[in-house]
Structure formats: structure tokens, C-alpha cells
Design goal:
This protein is mainly alpha-helical. It is about 60% helix and about 10% strand. A 3-stranded antiparallel β-sheet has the order 1-2-3. Helix 3 crosses helix 5. The longest helix has about 45 residues. The protein is elongated, with a radius of gyration of 39 Å. The N and C termini lie far apart (about 105 Å).
Length: about 170
């Protein structure tokens, strides 16, 4: 028996009809678009998670390393370094060399054990036309400027960077 061409196809027949190239390309394009959206959203979520983790790590590190005690001590050490290397040492060597150019090591050796006289925080904040006056607010908020002091000890070969400093803090952190 021959099928007539007037025969109507039922709904289930459409399921078994092979898809044409146009229908499959529409489906594949929608799948590709869905995959791109899924991939982009997955990357965005990962970036947000990583950024949140970085923020937490930075908050913890800043809490640990940016304590008032650490900030104050770093500022005092930086000011002391600048004081000795760029202010005191050049003046000391100039005076020693005016007396006798070969006597610098001998003069410095005299202070190797007892050290130079103590320098208070107030003196550090006032030296060189108050160069560090802006740091005075935070330093004096935590430390007594008259009881916080340091002492510098020159070390051989008595050059600009050959020294050690003993710090004595009178601070409330």
C-alpha cells in the first residue's frame, strides 16, 4: 500500500522527523550563548570571591602591622636615622676634621662604649628647623617627648652608617 501525499502528520511524528540544518544551528547557537553566559558568570563569581578574600587578608595584615606601637616606633627610628646620618654625623666630622684631618677615628672611638649623649624625642622633633613637626602629633599622642630618648653608639670603621641605637620608650600604646 502506498501512502498518500495528503496524509497529515501527527504531533508525535514531528519528534521523529530529522532536524534540518537551520533548526540545529539555532539550537547550537542558543547553547553556545548559554555556555558563554555561564562561563562569564562563573568567572565573575570567582573574581568576587578572590577580591573578598584579598580584602580579608589585607584587613588582617593591616591590623597586625599598622598598630600604633609599630607606627610610632618606625617613625622614631626613621627620624633618628635621619638625625644621625644627615645632621649630626656631618657636623661632627666637620668639626673633627677642622681640628685635625686624621683624628676622626680617634674622636669617634672615644664614644664607642659610652655613646653620644642621649637625645630626647623633643630634640628629634625640633632639630633642623623642626623638619619633623608634622610627625609630632602622632608621636606625642602616644609618647612622652621628654622621657622617650635614644642613645647613639658609633661603631668601627666609624662611617656614616656604622652605628647602633638604643631606644628607651616612654609610651602608652
Amino acid at each position: 500500500m502506498k501512502k498518500s501525499s495528503n496524509h497529515k502528520k501527527t504531533g508525535s511524528a514531528f519528534l521523529h522527523i530529522p532536524r534540518t540544518r537551520v533548526q540545529s544551528s539555532k539550537l547550537s547557537r542558543s547553547k553556545a550563548t548559554n555556555h558563554k553566559i555561564f562561563s562569564a558568570s562563573r568567572h565573575i563569581i570567582l573574581i568576587v570571591i578572590i577580591m573578598a578574600m584579598l580584602m580579608v587578608v589585607l584587613a588582617i595584615l593591616s591590623r597586625v602591622f599598622l598598630t600604633p606601637e609599630r607606627i610610632v616606633k618606625q617613625k622614631i627610628e626613621a627620624i633618628t636615622t635621619d638625625y644621625y646620618e644627615n645632621y649630626f654625623y656631618p657636623q661632627f666630622t666637620a668639626v673633627a676634621e677642622m681640628q685635625n684631618p686624621n683624628i676622626l677615628a680617634e674622636k669617634m672611638k672615644r664614644y664607642e662604649t659610652p655613646g653620644f649623649s642621649t637625645i630626647t624625642l623633643r630634640q628629634l622633633l625640633l632639630f633642623d628647623n623642626q623638619r619633623y613637626a608634622t610627625a609630632a602629633d602622632i608621636l606625642t599622642a602616644y609618647c612622652d617627648e621628654n622621657k622617650t630618648y635614644m642613645q647613639i653608639f658609633p661603631e668601627p670603621p666609624f662611617e656614616k652608617t656604622n652605628y647602633r641605637v638604643e631606644y628607651h620608650y616612654s609610651c602608652d600604646f
